């Protein structure tokens, strides 16, 4: 009666619309990450013309739906009870005209009270259902086209068939209450649809359409013996209802998604993970308290890692085992100790993370080895790669060269000494994976052996030198022996082996010497273990006799030399004498010079031809020495020319 003037009614409707729009904006600012909005309104009184008693429990129905949808992460716009029809109409237009936040997916409209003939009852009359649904149609609200609109009417008999036909073309789904049955219960509780629907929405992960089908089926089963229900529900209504309720909207599932944290796993190294945990989209809406991360390997217990900030952060998980599979999940904790966790995410740690070291057995040298080095398959995450070698006994590092990209050469090694080579791959976060190999050059394979006889002639030592068993494999170049005086280490002689034995002559009697065999390889000489040899002593009588004989021989030699100088012709025939190093070869019939002696004095010095021996021809008359070179081979013979004044003499030796 107050608004019989349509102009005044339009002004009031517009004013109320603006008021509701402002309420919507406040709600959106308060809950910007909600999943959607539900508009709740109710009317306990019937239209004046219908003269029906008030509907009991409408406030309880609104309370129950508000509690349910808040728990599901929805914002709630609750209108006062028993508004006039124009106010409800203005409120629907207001809600449909505002811009919704991006996180909002659905719009629900819930009404409970009297209804009938495609309308709901209000204190001032009734309101057509199309006046509630049309403001949300694509033509009226194109900005809401991507949102699902669902209308729930817990009322008495509504003409469901005509409503569905008029609503479906606008993509608006309508789910009436139990068709043909009064909305009010026979107690002061809420309507039957609200009683069954509210708990089902909070506990079932089915789609909304499947839940409504189950709920209406449960109501029909509950009321199957009620004559009023049987009389008012046609046999075609239930199948049609089931067919039209396939809305793929699961409120509980969407709530779980909105409360579930976000997890991104990144492998930092073969033994560590970086896990980024973000707070759920609706963490503020649901009052998130804290986040934590759980991980485990196989059947082990979960390991708990707290996330420092409620809004999320990055968690480093270290000291994992490469080649193992771990499972990771994040947990969000809400009030009343409600925990929402992500699904367990498997994470396979890399398997091929170790370097590969393989010794090249074809590379045989007495002072170096080569290893084939392969970097791990996970080298994309590797920061750097290192190869080191050290002596196990002294811990001294050894020189390493890289002759090729995947090959290292370790030099300056000693046979019989054990070494350790380590290849290490370094990864981020101070993680590393190493592989170690031990090796040595076998001493018995490269070191020669030396021996001697217990019975030695006076002033000489004879030793036997044996080549090492792997001489050919390690490229043996020469085999020799050296003799040093034990008292001061002075080198007495050094000779190459040219047979099975080596004889050192003209040594001091009753003197201790140290002999060693020498194996010469490329770039290195290897000495045998030393042996000590003591020369035998010469008896005094024998020594004196030797001196007398030597003096007698000397006098005879001087006489013969004089005779030759005076009486022999100039032509001197070639003479052949034989001797070894250290021997003296006496040559006679040298014309007027008499006799002379040639002494093979020593081996060649460094830089000389190894086949050259030096010989000295001694002129006895005035003790003048003439030196010439003897050139030849061990088993052959050669001639060395010796010049003496104007005459020429020839010394042939083999």
Number of helices: 12
User: What share of residues are in beta strands?
Assistant: 25-35%
Overall mean confidence score, pLDDT: 75
How would you classify the helix and strand content by structural class? Answer: alpha+beta
Radius of gyration: 57 Å
The percent range for helix content is: 10-25%
* Largest sheet strand order: 2-1-3-6-7
Uncertain runs with pLDDT below 50, 5 residues or more?
Answer: 158-186, 228-246, 569-576, 589-594, 610-614, 616-654
The end-to-end span amounts to: 153 Å
Please state the overall shape, judged from the principal axes of the Cα atoms: rod-shaped
Biggest sheet features: 5 strands, parallel
Task: Please count the beta strands (DSSP E, at least 2 residues each).
Answer: 37
Account of the protein in words:
The protein has 654 residues and is α+β, with helices and mostly antiparallel strands. It contains 12 helices and 37 strands. The strands form 10 sheets. Strands 2-1-3-6-7 form a 5-stranded parallel beta sheet, sandwiched between helices. Residues 158-186, 228-246, 569-576, 589-594, 610-614 and 616-654 have low confidence and may be disordered.
Question: Brief description of this entry?
Answer:
The protein has 654 residues and is an alpha+beta fold.
């Amino acid at each position: 009666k107050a608004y019989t003037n349509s102009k005044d009614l339009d002004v009031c409707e517009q004013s109320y619309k603006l008021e509701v729009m402002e309420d919507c904006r406040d709600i959106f600012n308060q809950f910007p990450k909600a999943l959607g909005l539900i508009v709740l309104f109710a009317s306990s009184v019937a239209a004046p013309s219908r003269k029906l008693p008030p509907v009991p429990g409408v406030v309880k129905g609104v309370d129950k739906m508000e509690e349910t949808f808040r728990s599901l992460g929805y914002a709630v716009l609750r209108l006062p009870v028993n508004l006039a029809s124009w106010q409800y109409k203005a409120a629907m237009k207001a809600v449909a005209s505002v811009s919704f936040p991006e996180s909002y997916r659905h719009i629900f409209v819930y009404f409970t009270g009297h209804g009938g003939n495609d309308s709901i009852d209000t204190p001032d009359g009734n309101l057509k259902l199309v006046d509630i649904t049309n403001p949300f149609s694509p033509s009226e609200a194109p900005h809401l086209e991507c949102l699902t609109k669902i209308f729930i009417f817990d009322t008495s008999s509504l003409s469901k068939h005509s409503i569905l036909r008029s609503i479906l073309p606008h993509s608006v789904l309508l789910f009436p209450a139990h068709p043909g049955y009064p909305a009010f219960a026979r107690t002061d509780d809420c309507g039957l649809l609200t009683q069954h629907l509210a708990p089902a929405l909070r506990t079932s992960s089915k789609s909304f359409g499947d839940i409504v089908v189950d709920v209406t089926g449960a109501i029909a089963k509950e009321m199957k013996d009620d004559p009023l229900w049987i009389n008012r529900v046609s046999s075609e209504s239930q199948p049609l209802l089931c067919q039209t309720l396939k809305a793929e909207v699961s409120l509980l599932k969407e709530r779980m998604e909105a409360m579930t944290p976000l997890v991104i796993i990144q492998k930092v190294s073969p033994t560590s993970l970086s896990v980024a945990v973000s707070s759920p989209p609706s963490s503020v809406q649901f009052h998130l308290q804290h986040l934590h991360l759980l991980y485990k390997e196989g059947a082990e217990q979960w390991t708990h890692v707290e996330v420092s900030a409620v809004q999320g952060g990055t968690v480093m998980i270290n000291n994992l085992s490469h080649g193992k599979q771990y499972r990771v999940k994040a947990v969000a904790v809400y009030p009343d100790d409600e925990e929402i966790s992500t699904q367990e995410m498997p994470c396979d740690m890399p398997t091929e993370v170790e370097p590969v070291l393989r010794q090249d057995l074809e590379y045989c040298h007495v002072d170096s080895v080569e290893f084939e080095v392969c970097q791990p398959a996970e080298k994309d995450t590797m920061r750097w790669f290192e190869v080191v070698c050290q002596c196990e006994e002294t811990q001294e590092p050894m020189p390493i060269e890289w002759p090729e990209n995947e090959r290292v050469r370790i030099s300056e090694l000693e046979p019989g000494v054990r070494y350790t080579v380590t290849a290490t791959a370094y990864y981020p976060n101070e993680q590393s994976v190493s592989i170690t190999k031990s090796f040595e050059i076998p001493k018995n394979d490269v070191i020669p052996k030396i021996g001697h006889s217990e019975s030695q002639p006076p002033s000489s030592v004879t030793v036997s030198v044996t080549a090492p068993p792997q001489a050919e494999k390690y490229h043996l170049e020469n085999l020799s022996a050296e003799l040093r005086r034990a008292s001061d280490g002075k080198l007495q002689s050094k000779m190459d082996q040219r047979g099975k034995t080596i004889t050192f002559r003209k040594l001091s009697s009753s003197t201790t010497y140290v002999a060693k065999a020498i194996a010469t390889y490329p770039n290195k000489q290897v000495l045998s273990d030393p042996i000590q040899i003591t020369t035998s002593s010469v008896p005094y009588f024998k020594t004196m006799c030797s001196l007398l004989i030597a003096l007698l021989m000397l006098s005879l030699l001087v006489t013969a030399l004089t005779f030759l100088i005076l009486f022999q012709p100039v032509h001197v025939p070639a003479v052949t004498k034989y001797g070894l190093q250290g021997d003296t070869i006496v040559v006679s019939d040298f014309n007027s010079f008499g006799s002379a002696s040639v002494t093979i004095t020593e081996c060649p010095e460094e830089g000389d031809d190894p086949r050259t021996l030096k010989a000295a021809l001694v002129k006895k008359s005035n003790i003048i020495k003439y030196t010439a070179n003897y050139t030849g081979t061990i088993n052959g013979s050669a001639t060395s020319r010796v010049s003496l004044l104007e005459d020429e003499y020839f010394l042939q030796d083999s």
